[in-house]
Amino acid sequence: MRHHLSKLPSDVVIGRPVTVATLLILSGALAPQAFASDFNAFQSSAMSCLQVGRLASCQTALIQAEALQRRASARNAFPCQTLLLGLQADLIMQQLGDGRGEKAVHDVATTGRGCAGL
Question: Taking all residues of the chain, what is their mean pLDDT, rounded to a whole number?
Fold first, then answer.
């Protein structure tokens, strides 16, 4: 008699592509691509805020930056988290009409490099 957990090779279950993809996403295997996509969306909103002064973009960028910095914190990527917190301050200052101009725009690119590969 065989143990119920021991399976012969012919008894192995093959996962469907949807199931496998879901497991990869939930396990974090695809997280770097998701972070890059989310960061690109954030970068677009942040640049619209900092260069054009569009207040709605500032609010969107703040919300996106908050989600990104929480994700960085959860992954113990504290340098990236710190850069994102700095950008959040830049976005708030821009909303208040006292932005740092080109320095803040430069910080967006610096943060992209500092958070690469997350």
Answer: 82
